Amino acid sequence: MSKKREQAHQEEEAGEAWLLPYSDLMTLLLAVFIVLFAVSKIDAQKAQQISQEFSSSMMNKEYNGQGSGSGSGSGGSGPISNSSPSDATPAGGPLNIETESELESFLGEYELKKLETLKKEIDTKLHDDGMDQSASTMIDMRGLVIRLNNAIFFDSGSAQIKKQSEETLMEVANLLNTVDNYIRIEGHTDNVPIKHSSYPSNWELSTARAVNVVKLFIDKESFSPNKLIAVGYGEYKPVADNSTDEGRAKNRRIDIIILSSKYNNLEEQLVK
């Protein structure tokens, strides 16, 4: 009887022996899990802190240079532009204006130089035609932007291009006709509601003006319609403060944009 009891006791001890290493293993896994959780939590907090600091620095980034062009040439941290700083800065704060080094990094040295050469040709043409005060050019990440004051090219509330301004547009178009990239024509207005016009809203007026510039390029300068884009933004893309006469005058504009290669490739993907 005692032998049976001793044998049963030994079997019980042998049967429970596995619990000890299993318990050690579970303890070790728990310790590893705690360590990993603590490390990941620190990394997450650190990543969040870095992200916040980066976002804050980008939000507060300002550029004080005026770039190159007919204005003051000091600084090197503004856009490549022949317009004054007030032309490019709305009342709400500084625009996301790229420095020349950022442009070269985004566009590439070759494309930037090509756009700069074309910009100089257009600046010369605008100067020769006495259009310095009503037209300006700049290079940003979208490409080369030719900004035209609506008052010179259109009567108030009208989308018909003034006859005396057609020649200037055609001369500019002639310089652009050899460009392979897409050219986007953007119409913009101020925020004053339309009165005494055949167009019910600024949106439709701005679109009609962009379309008429496109039609002029096609009809008079034989542009391929495939590479022209007409867009109307109405009052919804201001570049200046609409609460002043000067700001509203700057917002009434036509932007002719020769798209950079990256924007051009994106456009090609969109139209497929």
TrEMBL record:
Family the UniProt entry places it in: Belongs to the MotB family.
Main subcellular localisation: membrane
Xref: SUPFAM superfamilies: OmpA-like
Name the record gives this protein: Chemotaxis protein MotB
Residues spanning the membrane: 20-39
Domain OmpA-like: 141-262
Biased composition (Gly residues): 66-78
PANTHER family linked to this entry: LIPOPROTEIN YIAD-RELATED, STATOR ELEMENT OF FLAGELLAR MOTOR COMPLEX
GO cellular component entries: plasma membrane
Locations listed in the record: Cell membrane
Region feature Disordered, mapped onto this chain: 59-96
Keywords: Cell membrane, Membrane, Transmembrane, Transmembrane helix
Top-level taxon in the UniProt lineage: Bacteria
Membrane topology, record value: Single-pass membrane protein
Source organism of this protein record: Lacrimispora xylanisolvens
